[in-house]
Amino acid sequence: MILYGASGHGKVIIDILESMGEQNIEIWDDADRDPIWEFPVQKPFPVVDFIKDKVIISIGVNATRRKVAERMRGMVQFGTAIHATAYVSKRANVGEGTVVMAGVTVNPDVKIGRHCIINTNCSIDHDCVIGDYAHISPNATLSGDVHVGEGTHIGSGASAIQGVRIGKWCTIGAGAVLIRDIPDFSTAVGNPARIIKVNEEAHEA
C-alpha cells in the first residue's frame, strides 16, 4: 500500500495497515520529508499509471485530499484501511480511499463515500450516509439516518440526533449538538448548534 502524504494522519494510517497485517507500505510526498519511523519518504514517480500497489491519500485537509484524488483518478487504484479494532457491519458500504480508525462503530446500512476519514472512536449508526471527502472526527456520534454532505468536517465529540441532514462542505465545531438540518457551506457550533458563518467558496479551496 502506498500512502500519499507524509503527515501525522499518515502515521495513524500506518498503524491501521499494520493492524490489518499489511507488510508492504510505502510513503510518497511531493516535498522533502524526514522518514516516518522506519519508512523512508520518496517523491512520487513522474508517471504512476503502471503502479500495481493501491494508494491511500494520507492528507487530513478535505479539500486537498479531493484535489489529489481527482488528479490521480484513472492513474492508480485506491485502497481502503480499516483498523482491526473497528466494527464495520457486513451490511455497511465503505468507499475507496476511505480510512476507518481504531474503536470506530459503523452499523448496518451505512453508506460511506470515497476518501473519507472516519476517526478514532466515532460512532455512525444505521442508515447514515457520509459523502465523499468527509471527515468524522474522534468521538463524534451520528444517530440513525443522519446524512453528511461531501467534504464536511464533523468536529471532535460532536453529535447529531436521528434524521438530521448536514450539507456539503460544512464545518461542525467540536462538541456541537445538531438537532436540526444544517445547509451547505455552513459553520455551526454550540449546543444546540447554531450557524455562525456561510461560505459558499470554501468547497473550491
Description:
The protein is α/β, with parallel strands linked by helices and 205 residues long. It has two domains: 2-72, Rossmann fold (3-Layer(aba) Sandwich); 81-195, 3 Solenoid (UDP N-Acetylglucosamine Acyltransferase, domain 1), CATH 2.160.10. The protein is built from two helices and 23 strands. It has helices at 8-19, 62-72; strands at 2-4, 26-28, 41-42, 55-57, 81-82, 87-88, 93-94, 99-100, 105-106, 111-112, 117-118, 123-124, 129-130, 135-136, 141-142, 147-148, 153-154, 159-160, 165-166, 171-172, 177-178, 186-189, 194-198. The protein has an eight-stranded mixed sheet, covered by helices on one side. Strands 6-9-12-15-18-21 form a six-stranded parallel sheet, with no helix packed on it. The chain is globular, with a radius of gyration of 17 Å. The mean pLDDT is 93.
